[in-house]
Structure prediction request, 374 residues.
Amino acid sequence: MTAIKLNQVTKTFPSNTLILNEINLLIESGELVVFIGSSGCGKSTLLRLIAGLDTQSGGDIWFDDHLMNEVPPGKREVGMVFQSYALYPHMTVKENLSFGLKQKKISKLIIEEKINQVAQTLEIDGLLDLKPDALSGGQQQRVAIGRCIVQTPKLFLFDEPLSNLDAELRVKTRREIRGLHKKLNATMIYVTHDQVEAMTLADKIAVFAPLSEYNSVNLQQFGSPLELYNQPANKFVAGFLGTPKINFILATISQITASAFEIKLQNSEFLIVKARNEINTDELEIGQTVELAIRPEHLFLDSNQGDTSINADYETRELLGAETLIYFNFGGTSIAIKCPDQIVELNPNNKEVALYFNLINCFVFDQISGKRLV
Prediction:
């Protein structure tokens, strides 16, 4: 097992485009950490820097107490599973698994033992004499993972390994990867754009965003899945985690005190937002545009389940079996609520519906910077 420390890591492309800026991150030995973010945020680039396939423009990469800046990829003892699987098409599964070991001049007996052990672990022992084109996508993915495991690396890196699989196989394979992590007790870094994968796989999640005028660093927040879900640092993190996506409602600040502030919603309703701690009034001003954020599962149709409400126009619903998603229009903004019921009766002739919620479950973000205010 290996602990990974990234200290002020930056990456600039030859075109002078800054893609990664000041990445500071500590991954404990044995953790499964997921890098997640939108396209262009640098998560795959960072994975390649850790693997040594690319070189950072600044900062340091440490494996335990060893500085890796000048260490070539082959000496880093890293195993990497790519999105494309990267299997040799002219080789059998067994030959694909043994290729790297043969390059290291390992004895045939040890190679045979390693292959048989890994094949049994991944349940591909019946596929050893087949070539990749005879395998399904899920089977090819297992072979790619197996080829990584037989090398007994200190660190496993996964670059969107499930993106080519269908939905059912993705669910099955991510459970297998999670089980493999527990069995090997190895340090793993997993890159994905799928927040469901991130929430279900990770010990901790690192959320990345592209650099912009209002965003000088890529890493937005690092912590456990529930920590990020329940206490997002900013609007980007809040909006990236959760299905359906969190609801954002535009508002302006109308009054400010030391412990609360009043916001005016799009329909001219006013809400008093109380803070758990003393408000930093330097971050707030009268007339400031903010966004009230409410997760779909925190909106209710029952007046007994909320301390405040808004009125919105009913649009449509989606019956998902165990739950129902209902969509409303609030002053031109689409709002979704998630009901843990199979059938929710709404009268389409009575379009305006009261949606109840508790302000303690809401977040308020500055619209421009995305910074969380409460």
About this structure: The chain has two domains: 4-236, 247-366. The first strand starts at residue 4 and ends at 12. The two ends are 39 Å apart (CA to CA). Residues 167-184 form the longest helix (18 residues).
